[in-house]
Amino acid sequence: MVNPFKVVINQLNNEISSSSKKELNAQQKKKLFNQTKMYIFLQDFIEKVKPCLEEGETIHAYLPMTNDGENVSAVGLGLLGMYHPESEEAKAYVKDFNDLRGNRLLIFTDQRMIFTTIIEFLDQRTFFSYPYTTIKAITLKENKTSYFDWDDSFPPKRVALFTYTFDFESENHIFSEMLGQRDADILKRQLSEIPVLKEILVTKNIYRERRFDRIVNNPVLAYRLTFYFFNILAIVVLALFALGGFFHIGPFKQAFDASAVSVIQTIIFRYLY
């Protein structure tokens, strides 16, 4: 094991040799301290998880999920993300990292996927097991959205943003999550490297054993319905405003007084005739 004291001193030597005189400010020092503290905690946490593995079972990768990134926090957070820690270990975790149910972990082994919320595992050793032999299909669907970046250029440039829908069904359990690019790369690597995972169908469509779940527990369908619903709702509201403003009819007619209506109508008639 490499002595961290020597590692840090060697880093300082590298900074001297590279003529780097820049010191860490208070915020950078705090960030580095928190990262180091989290690293030590996760090393201990993994040691607590290992006794839950079967004999001969090995861990291949970890997929972290949080509530402050590209993941769908509602999937694993529960009602408002509330949780009351009971054990001293869980209380210390909340105090050190200011987290309740935000940090979640999906562990890939050579036999299954293991999902757990950090604080629940500390409290009750709770986790969910998804053996690869119970999964008939895995959904990995790329979603593309775009936005205008006003910070780096003017006029603003359209920037593409990619997310991925990750979904599967294991017996009576449904796992569904939204992944960012880095998360998706971790998943893709496991799909190509773990022998049992390589045999599972990877599709862009949501797979459900029961027809009821294909409709009710379908995140892609829910997204599409929500998207179209709010777009249609916006069009209807704008149309009602137009009716109220131009023709003084409909539920929004009170929002426009008589003088405003007469001015708008005069402009329209002059333009048309």
Give a short overview.
The chain is α+β, with helices and mostly antiparallel strands and 273 residues long.
Write the layout of secondary structure elements.
Elements: H1 4-17, H2 26-49, E1 59-65, H3 74-77, H4 88-97, E2 104-109, E3 112-117, H5 118-124, E4 128-131, E5 135-149, E6 157-170, E7 173-179, H6 181-193, H7 195-198, E8 201-203, H8 211-216, H9 219-247, H10 258-272
Parallel strand pairs: 5-8
Antiparallel strand pairs: 1-2, 2-3, 3-4, 5-6, 6-7
Helix pairs in contact: 4-5
Transmembrane segments: 227-249
Protein name: YokE-like PH domain-containing protein
Keywords: Membrane, Transmembrane, Transmembrane helix
Task: Tell me what you see in this structure.
InterPro entries: YokE-like_PH (IPR039519). Keywords: Membrane, Transmembrane, Transmembrane helix. Residues 87-154 form the YokE-like PH domain. It comes from Enterococcus silesiacus. This is YokE-like PH domain-containing protein. It is a single chain. The chain has 273 residues and is of the alpha+beta class. The chain has two domains: 57-217, no CATH class; 229-272, no CATH class. Helices cover 46% and strands 23% of the residues. The chain has ten helices and eight strands. The strands form two sheets. It has a four-stranded antiparallel β-sheet. Strand 2 (104-109) and strand 3 form a beta hairpin.
